[in-house]
Amino acid sequence: MKKIQQYFESQAFGVCTKLGEKLRIPTSSIRIFFIYSSFLTVGSPIILYLSLAFVMNFRKHLRRKHNSIWY
């Protein structure tokens, strides 16, 4: 079970982990919130999750661009 969890955590975007670190909430609580709210609202939190993943990925690329030696 631990290997499956590590596989999904490494393949996911890291949104729940990043939110957990920022808000100081356990990552598992955030994941459970996304799962339950997806079932209750027929998938709208998935759109929120993917948009947060896009924003995090975009910010990471912007930081790489500004941390360049040749800037």
Summarize the SSE layout with pairings.
Blueprint: H1 2-11, H2 15-23, H3 27-40, H4 44-66
Helix pairs in contact: 2-3, 3-4
Describe the structure.
This protein is mainly alpha-helical and 71 residues long. It contains 4 helices and no strands. The mean pLDDT is 78.
Short description:
By secondary structure, the chain is mainly alpha-helical.
Oligomer: single chain
Strand content: under 5%
Number of helices, where a helix is a run of at least 4 consecutive DSSP H or I residues: 4
Sheet/helix structural class: mainly alpha
How far apart lie the N and C ends? 45 Å
List the helices and strands in order.
HHHH
Estimated radius of gyration: 15 Å
Tell me the major beta sheet: none
- The tally of structural domains comes to 1
Which key phrases capture this entry?
single chain, mainly alpha
